Amino acid sequence: MARIGVFVCHCGLNIASTVDVQRVAETLRHYPGVAFATDYKYMCSDPGQNLIQQAIEEHDLDGIVVAACSPTMHEATFRKAAATAGLNPYQVESANIREQVSWPHQKTPEKATRKAIEIVRSLVEKVRYDEPLTPLTLPIVKRALVVGGGIAGLTAALDIADSGYPVVLVERSAQLGGRMAQLFHLYLNFDGSQSLLEERIEAVTHHPLIQVLTNAEVTEFGGYVGNFTVEVGELGNWEVGAVVLATGFDLYPKANLPEYGGGRYPDVVDSLQFEAMLKEGEIRRPSDGRVPREIVWVQCAGSRAPNLHRPYCSKICCMYVAKQTIAYRRAVPEGQAYVFYIDIRSQGRGYDEFVQRAMEEFGVVYLRGKASRIIQRGRQLQVWGVDTLSGQSVRVEADMVVLAMAAVPSSGSEALARLMRVATDENGFLAEAHPKLRPVESLTAGIYLAGAAQFPKDIPETVAQGSGAAAKVLQLFAQREMVSEPTVAIVDEELCAGCGRCVPACPYDARSLHPRKKLALVNAALCQSCGACIVACPNKATIVRNLTPDQVLAMVEAVL
Amino acid sequence: MTDPSPTPRALIIGAGIAGMQAALDIGNAGYDVTLVERRPSIGGRMAQLSETFPTLDCAQCILTPRTVEVGHHEHIHLRTYSEVEAITGDVGHYRVRIRRHAAYVDWDRCTGCGLCQEKCPGKVDSDFERHVGKRKAIYTLSPQAVPNKPVIDREHCIFFQRGKCKACVKFCPVGAIAFDQEDTIVEEQVSAIILAPGYDLYGLENMPEYGGGRVPDVIDGLAFERLLSASGPTAGKIQRPSDGQIPREIVFIQCAGSRDPEKHMPYCSKVCCMYIAKQAILYRHRVHDGQAYIFYIDIRAAGKRYDEFTQRAMEDENVVYLRGKVSRIFRQDSQVMVWGADTLSGQQVQIAADLVVVAPALIPHPTTRRLADMLELPVDEHGWLLPLDSNTHPVETVRPGIFLAGAGTGPMDIPETVAHASGAAAQVLKLFSRQHKSPSVIGEAGGERQ
To answer: I want to staple A29 with a disulfide (CB 3.0 to 4.6 A). Which of A37, A167, A194, A369 is the partner?
Structure first.
């Protein structure tokens, strides 16, 4: 006979003001197999946890159900408390009577109380058949792979390696430095920061723990957190425990914008071409080498255009355009700069002030409106648009036009994401695990994100994210071993016919067939306990531990 | 290999989302953290928010698991209701003096049952509720507070003021009320420090053009968050402060005190465009026949799904965006008159609003200056903490061992804050691994498995 304990939490008034918690405890006290039932104001508080521990010891309980909030809140708390009192933590179940009962049913307390009783009853049935389990442990390979040698990848690699762990840094091009190396001065700290990029490249190149692979790409990838295997072209194979993806961005191609000449006009350049001119110290028109006296910048070229091009704002253009206009006016003091914009997005400490400087100190003319088209007339360009402030249509004659093209995911990054089973968003950028609170983690355990691969972002934000991704890697490597939940799928070797149907059914690549025996295998580190294999198996040879068909049926019966 | 130095420990000042994230990142790597918070419980500004943009996730729902995790973490030592008074020493060896304010409640005994708050007769305006709600003289910031232990506000406690009452003493089932409690001072040794002091809002009293804080139905963005919040004073019902009516016409004013070099702050406060769009959407979700207007200069929706979100406000929720600044706000009968200019049509606009929500400039939290002085760290002319280099060293400072996290360095939104805080944590972990080369780390890392 089972000896189950039931603990009903008031959660202050959160549960108790709707659910009759005493009645829940009282009803369960008489349920078969329940040896002890009580209620308490806050089960998660120290006295609440003491109460659970004392009851386990005094009543020799072999399973407990805590009826309280969502298991994501406090299941770990109660499991830990029970373990201290000698009960196996996998024989502790949470009945969610707050999010699933008291909160949504505040107006019907009687029904809420009955629902709470049913939920607790079903969990009593589950815990009755729960086996004591031990968490699985796996070794961690304490080496990181960083993909992308731009400022994000360099920062992440350096932070990891400086903490004592080896890093393999894979860069597709021949050089490190990424987009930042293509830039002339930066808009914050106008004259200073390029030398800091050089320093960082130096530090990475000479770091004893960083292996830099240039002209290199990841061609094969497998495994799971702590134990990935990676093939880098002809250069070799590595085992790594964690990955930082810092694949950066590309510019949307000019050819996609026929309204701006579709790439046919030589003097319509994109923003990176203009950076190259600034870096060379020679601002000259590509067509005839003349110094342009009038330059028009067109912001949002391909951005914020949901039907035609990219729906999103590319975030960085407003600031670098302001920087480019200032750099141009410094280089060509008699030149005139115009900027077509929709909104000026100069957000953060010192940003708006910088754009104000472009307008006031450098006389840059900002025109609020999207440029509608660019046409070439002889050796001149005409930019047509509407000034939405005056309501007039305007035509600006220019010697050169700079398009602030939409930032898009770098070519190949989506294929790499597929290879690594990392989710991408609707625009092809890498998807973060949570848009607010997990910005540098992917949804795949052990794979982290840094920089513009996740979404366009400027250098300060990219660098912070690079370090942030490194922090996640360092946390993982600080563990002695990987601990994973034992409540995963297992295969009954007696019943398995080795038909292999579970292999394609598994969405996590956790199933395979034994190379010799006719038997399905489960990679416990990859299994997410979803149950797809159970449905696929014609012989009922597979179950998820502590969620067996018998348990589920008993749970259903308890609520009917 | 012997290790002469003690296990390094980090001090984090400020337990908002930045400080909590940094604490978790360092704590999860196995190092001890002392997390100091001025208020009685952790969570910072985010704990005051209703839903978050652009997903409309409820702030409390995503924050509470974090606060609970921090509260129970074996390596994170919370010191709430405490302030750092002095720091001496240098990287690797800081000595920190922390004052813990008298709570007048013995937290070791208190079970957090909440009876004292229920019975306390002393009611006061709540700072946490931005003065659109009340709290008792003995209080926690919210029912989900971590730690869930109350403090007594001496100024408003009837016993402290008049010598009698003691309702809390009478009802406390465990005898935890301790009127004779005094401030306590502790000293700790730490190796690295992260400053995460966060931000404050520029006060309405500084802006006579928006009523100077004297018009009851002109409130700031955080006050409106409290009105929207399911756990706020109105349980999420939008009721205006003056008479509890549901506003049918609501005006939001962006850039109040921001982008105004002559009179107020020159900088853009970065987060307002998005939270105002969110508030307008949430308002329309609650008041279906209500009309929302937003005065703006530029719509700054730069981030993943941000521009799409403001489009949603305009197209799906019919929020009227008016490009221009508001020149004057005044009370007329039971309404608030808003006069402004629409720079797109060139017309003057007058709106008779039931409620006006102002998005004031973000300013450094008042504690920032004191911290900067104490540690001899540079701040900019507005008091924001300055990183070593804005581009390549955004979380480091001029002093090795001292790092920055979150909006204390300038306005930033939650995802940026979280990434920034993890970045600061990485610098601390890097420092600790050098200071404390435990044989296991180097041994395992060095092992070639290729």
So the answer is: A37
